[in-house]
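As promised in the previous annual report, we have extended the structural survey to additional targets. Below is the entry for glutaryl-CoA dehydrogenase (ETF).
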Amino acid sequence: MSRELDKLDLFDVNAMLNDEQRMVKESIGRWVDERFLPLVAEHFEAHTFPMELVPEMADLGLFGSTIQGYDCAGLDYMSYGLICQELERGDSGLRSFASVQSSLCMFPIDAFGSEAQKQRWLPPMAKGEVIGCFGLTEAHAGSDPASMKTRAKKDGDDWIINGSKMWITNGSVADIAIVWAQTDDGIQGFIIEKDMPGFDTELITRKMSLRASVTSALFFDDVRVPDSNRLPKVKGLKGPLSCLSNARFGISFGPIGAAQACLQEVLNYTAERVLFDRSLDCNQIIQQKLADMARRITTAQLLAYRLGQLKDSNQIQPTQISLAKWNNVRMALDIARECRDMLGGAGITTEHVAIRHMLNLESVITYEGTETIHQLVVGRELTGKNAF
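The corresponding structure token record, generated without further manual editing, is:
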């Protein structure tokens, strides 16, 4: 017998999830609906992040959710992807907060840190008592991180760090920064604490994107860092790039939520909006646009689901993450723009979600590797030749 399909999940991807994964998705979705969505427009307009929700996010197990032990939830990566999807259905800034805390800060401590570092930092980070940020990008070293100018020089048992980082999510609210710097022995990672002399942050304002997110610049002026704060188990670009791969995995899921939010809004609007004596969704061009959005969302869902399988089976390759991030963010940005247009003049206000998601996705398509960089990663895989 035929049954009505879920308009936001035409291929019933939800049925492919196991019970725990569905429970994670549904519980985070309810929290986003009940606790975050009533606040987001106000914070987007005010250029602030709702820090009062951080303890609730911690209680839900959103920080370091895939880490085993250290008071972390120990979920699989499919569940982490679904968390990102539901959070970004709320706002890219919400997903970014959790992504940075989990994939860019807790992950490198867990993967490359000493046992003492793990014991010191991971439990309070899981509880939301310590917030982290990730310092890799510089004003003149974005897509080419190897050209970073931030430098750490050995001085006895300490390191002296000088330089700066740019476009750092959570920077001005963070208690620690995972900072990558050039050394005489290659690029290395350091845990810099906010009260270390010479370490300063500056809030970046006048953003038209990710406004419900804290974005900062970091400055290091002869910051003395003990060797016990150096991540001992990695050297070279492998360290920061593996963190980025972990974050990009979540970003491959996140924009699906943003696109679903935009589609749901337009489905409601076109059903209720009457023009020339009939609802908008009676028009062929409207139905064609809605159908195309559903096609693209479904494709992205299946791509993300397969990516989750590859990640959980430890078979994932960086090229696969690049393809998914490129496809799914482009999908969501195009849908958000189309939905904004379909809402007419009302679409330019934060009374509707489309323009907020549209503006946010302009950042998401840029950070964690621009669309062009990911295209070149796939091109290199196909040709065997590096065009960077």
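The domain at 132-229 is CATH 2.40.110.10 (Butyryl-CoA Dehydrogenase, subunit A; domain 2). The CA atoms of residues 29 and 86 lie 5 Å apart. These points will be discussed at the next consortium meeting with the crystallography subgroup.
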